[in-house]
């Protein structure tokens, strides 16, 4: 077997999910909502399965979805995209990430990554032949600074892989941080791959800023989106890639020889969903923000003061404020085994020099689920 994949350990997500099943725990570990997603979008998919085309759709995606994406991003992010040459549909955002890395990396190219990082990034970069250069973000603010960027960029930097809004921290990077990142990319000549799957899951009146709108990056950036994240249906593996025509030529070749196409019924349903009234997207954000606040208030009442969360489904607690001796992985194991609540240790998102005091909770759950978890954690406090 290939040594990169053969040498990977069991992921912390699988470990914690197994423990959650074993102990009948409330699972606030993996990031997926309790509900099945918007009914009208699901109905469009069902109609398309029964009455539509179920053979190969176009490799680049059905024209209806590509046009819908162009219209959607013009409205929400002010991006002017040509649906014929600058938008491609993939079988999920992870396929889009893999394809982009395979298309853009030559063996030995250096790739800047920001840790804590989504667990797929590092093995995909290594399998593509890239040499990872890790920039380390730290709590409580997880900020991009000149020092952080200078630690990772070198004259050999060819690709930068950046996640905003950021999983697992819940950080939405400010415009000045993005402009600093853009300056480093321009100086190095690097291509910026932006994992923007959480672009609609932002709170407190924030507006997502795409890398495609940053100065000097329109022609050298790849924007990756996820319908599964936009509509809260994580099993719908429909990704969207936006890039300038010259970049898209290479990206499309990689996609052609990975999955080639994506189920047409899902594409038609996503096209419908992207055209939903803006009030639906605003209501979705408001509902998740309310769940965030419900969990944050409950955790704070238990002495587990949460760090700020400006986006995604995730809320973090820094155990150092509670007891500097606490280890996040040991804390999570104890919490699931003794108190029946599963969360994720953020140290698992570091490849080295891990921060070992932060625990991630998913709040994209019903009130009943969150309240049950908080009730169980009340017993944890009483046992302390």
UniProtKB/TrEMBL annotation:
Cofactor annotation: pyridoxal 5'-phosphate
Catalyzed reactions per annotation: L-aspartate + 2-oxoglutarate = oxaloacetate + L-glutamate
A cellular component annotation (GO) from this entry: cytoplasm
Residue ranges crossing the lipid bilayer per the database entry: none
Pfam families: Aminotran_1_2
Coiled-coil portions: none
Ranges where the Aminotransferase class I/classII large domain occurs: 24-377
Family statement drawn from the similarity comment of this UniProt entry: Belongs to the class-I pyridoxal-phosphate-dependent aminotransferase family.
PANTHER family the record matches: FI04487P
Subunit structure: Homodimer.
Name of this chain's protein: aspartate transaminase
């Amino acid at each position: 077997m290939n040594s990169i994949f053969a040498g990977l350990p069991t992921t912390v997500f699988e470990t914690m999910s197994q423990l959650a099943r074993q102990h009948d725990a409330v699972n606030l570990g993996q990031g997926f909502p309790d509900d099945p997603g918007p009914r009208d979008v699901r109905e469009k998919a069902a109609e398309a399965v029964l009455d539509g085309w179920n053979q190969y759709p176009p490799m680049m995606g059905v024209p209806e979805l590509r046009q819908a994406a162009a219209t959607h991003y013009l409205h929400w992010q002010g991006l002017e995209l040509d649906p014929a040459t600058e938008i491609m549909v993939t079988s999920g955002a992870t396929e889009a990430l893999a394809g982009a890395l395979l298309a853009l990396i030559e063996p030995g190219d250096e790739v800047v990554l920001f840790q804590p990082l989504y667990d797929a990034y590092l093995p995909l970069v290594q399998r593509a032949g890239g040499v990872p250069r890790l920039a380390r973000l730290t709590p409580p603010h997880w900020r991009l600074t000149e020092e952080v960027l200078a630690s990772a960029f070198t004259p050999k930097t060819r690709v930068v892989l950046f996640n905003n809004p950021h999983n697992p921290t819940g950080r939405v990077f400010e415009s000045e941080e993005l402009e600093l990142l853009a300056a480093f990319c321009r100086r190095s000549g690097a291509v910026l791959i932006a994992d923007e799957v959480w672009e609609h899951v932002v709170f407190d009146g924030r507006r997502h800023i795409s890398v495609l709108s940053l100065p000097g990056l329109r022609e050298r950036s790849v924007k990756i989106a996820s319908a599964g994240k936009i509509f809260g249906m994580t099993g719908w593996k429909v990704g969207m890639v936006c890039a300038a025509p010259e970049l898209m030529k290479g990206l499309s070749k990689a996609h052609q020889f990975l999955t080639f196409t994506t189920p047409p019924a899902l594409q038609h349903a996503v096209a419908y969903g992207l055209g939903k009234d803006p009030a639906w997207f605003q209501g979705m954000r408001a509902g998740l923000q309310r769940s965030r606040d419900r969990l944050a208030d409950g955790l704070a009442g238990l002495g587990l003061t949460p760090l700020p969360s400006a986006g995604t489904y995730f809320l973090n607690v820094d155990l150092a404020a509670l007891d500097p001796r606490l280890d996040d992985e040991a804390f999570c194991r104890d919490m699931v085994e003794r108190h029946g609540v599963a969360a994720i240790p953020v140290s698992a998102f570091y490849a080295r020099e891990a921060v070992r005091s932060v625990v991630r909770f998913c709040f994209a759950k019903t009130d009943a689920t969150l309240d049950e978890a908080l009730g169980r954690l009340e017993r944890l406090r009483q046992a302390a």
